[in-house]
Amino acid sequence: MTDTTDQKRPLKKLGPNYDDCVLKHLKQAISDYLQWMKSVGYVRKTRQSYQAQLNQFVFFNKNTTISWEKLFTSDCLEAFKRITEQSALTAINGLVRYLFSQGKIPQPLVNRPPPIDLPKIYEDYLSYQQTHRQATARLISSIKRVLVAFDQYLQTHKIDLGSLKIEQVDAFAAKFFAPFAAASCRIYRCRLRGFLKYLYHERNIIKRDLAPLVVGRREYAQAKPPKFLRPQEIRKLFAGLTIGSASDIRTYALVQLAYTMGLRPKEISQISFDDISFSTQQLKVTERKGTNPVELPVPEHTVKAIAAYVIGARPESEHRRVFLTMLPPFRPMSPNGVGYHITKAMRKVGLSSTAYWLRHTYAQNLLEAGSSIFEIKEMLGHDKIESTKLYLHVHIKLMRKVLFDETF
């Protein structure tokens, strides 16, 4: 989009008729924003939906004396939500981002609660999760919630982390988990175990690995199926893939990369045109777990799937990332987006599996082809051989034949 001088011009200082000026500037800002939405390809239905909420926001401000500086604060927006009984502020948030990009407000949203600073050992663990476990922002937020409560508990009871005992961990867990449902407790218990493992195995801060001792009430359920796809399931998956739309062509390429190369959703989302060579059929995977970049050969049918997407389905964009969203404004796909579309393709043909099952299947295929565990470790991008062993707990065709009566 080509910005006009009027759009880039900062707001003038408001005069005596302050409220009228705020309202006038707000209406103009909304008009500019809706015009921008049209210019970048938002469909008419979406623009109309946004305009309805933005009109409500104008009416809300018409009956208040809120200054421009406080118009887009969290307090103001929360008041608007309460009065209008809005469940979400999609249009308002979009307007805020637009005004910030145009330099008309100082920051996207003010009056956010300040971030909580944790002692260095906790921050080191969060960094470890991001670097070695490729933890998403959502997962980091979940882990941090437990760590903040754990640190506060230890400080309140004057417990030194180095002399931590399981009785103290249990006492914290009993108090912290009390208000949560069983499913939430399982998740938070896992977060706590991960931190305790880190303290023992990576930092040697505690004298005993307390993680296995953090257990909940025994629950009985049906055994989970092996987390890999068997040959007939792979055939079923690919038979169900179509190329009838741009989104279908993109999904076909995503599934090919996950199955034939064992790439994680994050690694797929990070692929740029600088990483892939169509002529030599090579792919540089730089954003790997444990910072282990590698250059991998790409099977011919996978190269063709990517090329078909780039030529016939990829939206026009200046982004260098290969895989983009299909709705404007076009931007690189997120790891969650990649995983979602692969999983959706599996569910479409009746497979209750996820994108990571293809990675497990890839590891099994390498093992059955005669690759050593050390070679598989490099192909998967693991920094520790123990991580690779976890992927190979489901074994080879002979065991499948015995257990599942499969023939090949």
For the record, what is the CATH homologous superfamily label of the largest domain? Intergrase catalytic core
Supply the CATH architecture of the largest domain. Answer: Orthogonal Bundle
Domain module tally: 3
Q: How many strands, what sense, and barrel or not for the largest sheet?
A: 3 strands, antiparallel
The general outline is flat
Report the C-alpha radius of gyration, rounded.
26 Å
Q: What's the total count of β strands?
A: 3
Q: Look at the structure and give the mean pLDDT.
A: 81
**Percent in strands:** under 5%
Question: Low-confidence parts lasting 5 or more residues at pLDDT below 50?
Answer: 1-18, 220-226
**What is the highest CATH level, the class of the largest domain?**
Mainly Alpha
Query: Could you give the order of strands across the largest sheet?
Result: 1-2-3
CATH topology-level fold name of the largest domain: hpI Integrase, Chain A
Instruction: Report the total helices.
Output: 19
In words, what does this structure look like?
The structure is a single chain. The chain has 408 residues and is mostly helical. The protein has 19 helices and three strands. It has three domains: 5-101, no CATH class; 120-213, DNA polymerase, domain 1; 231-404, Orthogonal Bundle (hpI Integrase, Chain A), CATH 1.10.443. The longest helix has 22 residues, at 18-39. The chain is flat and about 75 Å long.
What is the strand and helix layout of this fold?
Blueprint (H helix, E strand, L loop, with lengths): L4 H4 L9 H22 L4 H19 L5 H4 L2 H11 L5 H12 L18 H13 L4 H20 L9 H12 L4 H21 L28 H10 L5 H16 L3 H5 L6 E2 L4 E4 L8 E4 L2 H13 L22 H14 L6 H14 L4 H8 L4 H7 L5 H8 L4
Antiparallel strand pairs: 1-2, 2-3
Helix pairs in contact: 2-3, 7-8, 8-10, 12-14, 12-16, 17-18
